[in-house]
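Cross-posting from the modeling subforum.

Setting up a comparison between two proteins and wanted a second pair of eyes on the formatting. Protein 1 (sequence, then structure tokens):
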Amino acid sequence: MRRGKVYLVGAGPGDPDLITRKGLDLLRRADVVVFDRLIPHALLEETRHDAELINAGKEPTRHRLAQADINAIIVDRARAGKAVLRLKGGDPLVFGRGGEEALACRAQGIPFEIVPGVSSAFAVPAYAGIPLTQRHLSSAFTVLTGHEAPGSGAGGVNYEALARLGGTIVVLMGVKQLSSITRRLIDHGLAAQTPAAVIEWGTLPRQRTFVADLETIADKAREQLVQPPAIAVIGEVVRLREAGVAWYDILPAELLPTASPVLAGK
């Protein structure tokens, strides 16, 4: 029996062409692909015809598989000599539980490899025309989850420090908690007039971007019926979108990436 291995691969933020070349090559050769809900589903067409495909997607109110079950599946398939590819949205180590899955493999003596992906934390703002850093505006950015694990304790978000830090703030998985997040930032001293944006379905043809100030961005998102997946960007760099950096939203419809040139060249 050949020795199996697990590959923790980032699929990118949505546009299937944003997967790395290495990730795509491994995907095409894997025996087993365990994939998340928000991976670009066009990528599943790149798998071998005989590959086992396992949907491990988690929805906000329903988990198809518990994390312990996902860990057990990738370990068991690898122990059986399979090349197991765990395909995760964005980057596997940015709020993706890739570290937990790596530790599960290590505990069972299963070899693994981590293949970084393009994170939505910077790719989605880029598609919305919002640079996270800009000379004289922002020399740092902070990425936080809007969906903290219960009992995060010392590992939770320190909103007081965050409000003092300045720079750009990116909130992932936070559309449902946006009102609470923005209120906590304002309560800890961040100016209510700070520019803010919410970007829904970033990097995809259905992308929508809404801009307001920190005090009203949650109301704007609610009025526009914004749903996950969506991220928020807070900081002076948001002004650069309307200053001329926006590019994707103004592309003619015929130029939007409805077909993937990389995938078409399989």
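Protein 2 (same layout):
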Amino acid sequence: MSVGMNEGSMLWYEIPRSQSMINPIVSRAPREVLNQSCDLLSVYVYLKDHKADTLTAVVNTVESFARRNDSQDVKFLQAAGNAGIEAATNIVVKKANTQMLLLVYAAVVILAFITFRSWRGVICAVVPLMLTSVLCEALMVGLGIGVKVATLPVIALGVGIGVDYALYMLTVMLSFLRRGASLSQAYYQALLFTGRVVVLTGVTLGLAVATWSFSPIKFQADMGILLAFMFLWNMVGALLLLPALSYFLFPEARYAMATTGDGRPRSALPQDEQSQQATTPASQVL
């Protein structure tokens, strides 16, 4: 009991010299191994660490043993204590992570489709977000940041903020494509009109949260690294990946030439007039 009460350290495998130490040890053996009604027997297991792989292995072992040996008289239950709580938390977080991503992306897809009324526009907006989520999880593995209760909302937050960049760019691009502009012209006008805002917002948010990585609080440091990565990568995706996808999804607009009502090329309009016409509501696009 002395060893068991001291994290399994064999340094305590001896009879204490002090009577005041012997008394509490004797009073706890074996009554705390069994409950008062003697229908519950505890088995203590001391783990080398509390990593997810270790906890998962213990859970799988207990479940496998219980399936083979459970009867009407004896039931083998999952563990309690710190390791048991952490194992149960990991199971819930893993399930919640998948469910959260599905719901977040479903909401983004539905709202983007309502906004643009174009399935091709939805793909252009969502694919960069999905790539960012995959790369973010790869970064977490590389840095040893586990998916836990503290970091679970970070991915959803990055998706919710990151989709703004694609919306800014797509609104202007689709507006110009509707007027017959080529994809190159539409992208160029989008860069002039909202591209600057996207770069300013992405860099400002990314650098601001990146300073959290110097925090002595691990949760804050991890969240700062993940948010900075997602903000910056979503910005890059909106500026580079989005037009690349548009090239394949809007083949009819690759070489189109925009014209005004009097037959002049749209590119010949003054810059302020081009920007003014780029503000057509997204609901009227395509």
